Amino acid sequence: MNALLSLEEARARVLAAAQPLSAEPIELIEAAGRRLARPVVAGERHPAADNAAMDGYALRAADAARGAELTVIGESRTGHDVTALVGVGQAVRIFTGALLPAGADAVLVQEAAEPLAEGRVRCLATVAPGANVRRAGEEYEAGDELLAAGTRLTPAAIGLLASTGLTEVLVTRRPRVALAVIGDELSADDAPRLAHRHDSNGPMIAAACRAMGLEAAPGVTLGDDAEAVAAWLTRSLDGADLVITCGSASVGAHDVVAAAWERAGVAAQFARVAIKPGKPARFGRAAGALVFALPGNPLACLTAFEQLVEPAIAVLGGGAWQPLPRVRLPLAAAVRTGHDTLYLLRAGRGEAGLEVPARQGAAMLREAATQTLIAELPGGLAVPAGRPVEALALPGALDGGVWRPALRLPAAVGVRGPGSDAGKTLLIEQLLPVLTALGVRVGTIKHAHHDVDPDTPGKDSHRHFAAGAQRVLLLAPGKSALFARRDGPRDDLDGWLESFAGAADLVLIEGFSDEPLRAVRIEPRGEEFGLDVDSETAPAGWTVRRPSEPGADWRYPDDLVRSLAEQLAALADRP
């Protein structure tokens, strides 16, 4: 249970355990933000009858010739029945939403009509049949599903349901939350001693719960006492759907949550997650409730709540967890991450790109209170300024901006080895058909140290490039090639990876040995082939061992290639 899980695996366990709660009826006017417990099906069509979309004159479109004069035989007002029958050369004065009289098939807007004396009107324009008419049932028919189960009720959704005559709706009930903060250091005094501090986790997590529509008090304060925590858990499990503690969740001598869970009968699902901050986050189940133990450091506590508890709340409330939108921005300044874990760093938008403040301690909330992005950076990397980085966009982060959707970058894996005869290209050649058979779309990048031409010298595309074209796209039957001029000293690998987005799930890169990529390293040594996983490197990769003298026309063993391909396929973000 002390295994260190990736964020994706930990979240998957949470989502697998979370199930929508029971349903309850509620007044429609009170249902904003709630989730439908069952689909809503229309009992009748809407609109119920043909009606006018504009003020004007209901008439036969065939009579609306420019300059034609028609006799006005009556009026159709909103909320009133109409008995007039429109015949040849006749019209009815009509207002928006009023019933279309029998015999009429269009509405001439009043701006295109000239009222005349003695109940007549002149047409100043022609109209087509159906013009300015709302047809019966054009929005929905009886039996149409208007909203699916799980739909979040927005003001527009409530308006739609009200249009059917509903005044009450069945929604998934809100989770009942029990919240406690743990720590001898916490003080309720206005002037705590130096060894004490005010509790920030309780108000913060309670506010986060309320922001998701739950009712939550700041919570009780408990000391570092396993018996007291276990007793509170036992009481809270009687009636709560979601039990959250903050603090004492790690493995220190005075951290008591693990012992308290055991005494209270909480079955732990995991106890550590490979994120920073937020690593000592625990999740378990007991008595039908989901139980979370969040770290005591405030930023770690908030991060674990955002990444693990919020998805659970979404499912308990009848919805489906939706990841936050992402933005991809260049780093404004270089960032170095520590050991091999996922760093979730608060960040903001600046003129130079993504700005990551230096003060990101697990106990610090200042940046979380002022920044609206969370940069995701793998551990063990030195990420240079200018490198594109993906960041989660918190509510408000995209306000005021014009954003172009970006496709997810494919997974990138280097293929490296000593010298030009290490067997890198051969390994890629053997991997490609196996990966393709596994359903992986593969791209490759070759870092060449020799000159290349866009086409045979003298051909048109070669002449374009020689004349100074920045890019030359050569389209031929069955294939194409894009040649771009590289005048800068830096090899912009990230920019080239962007060109594979949406077209490849995995890119194998031969060269770029200085880039901090997950890599397959070929080592010519010994007399046998072998494949090892390099779990100690950052980022982790593989070592392919091959004989120093493999002989003529040698190839990698099929079982080695297959094993490596299957592991590479697991990295690919396939559609």
Helix content: 10-25%
User: How many domains, as an integer?
Assistant: 5
The DSSP helix count reads 11
Beta content: 25-35%
| Spatial ordering of strands, largest sheet | 8-5-7-6-10-9
Structural class: alpha/beta
Q: Please state the CA-atom Rg, rounded to the nearest Å.
A: 33 Å
CATH fold type of the largest domain:
Molybdenum Cofactor Biosythetic Enzyme, Chain A
CATH architecture of the largest domain: 3-Layer(aba) Sandwich
What does this entry look like structurally?
- It contains 11 helices and 38 strands.
- The protein is of the alpha/beta class.
- It folds into 5 domains: 156 residues, Molybdenum Cofactor Biosythetic Enzyme, Chain A, CATH 3.40.980; 58 residues, Molybdopterin biosynthesis moea protein, domain 2 (Alpha-Beta Complex); 84 residues, Molybdopterin biosynthesis moeA protein, domain 3; 68 residues, MoeA, C-terminal, domain IV (Beta-clip); 118 residues, Rossmann fold (3-Layer(aba) Sandwich).
- A 6-stranded mixed beta sheet has the order 8-5-7-6-10-9, with no helix packed on it. A 6-stranded mixed beta sheet has the order 17-14-18-23-22-19, sandwiched between helices.
- A hairpin with a 2-residue loop joins β33 and β34.
- The two termini are 32 Å apart.
- 34% of the residues are buried.
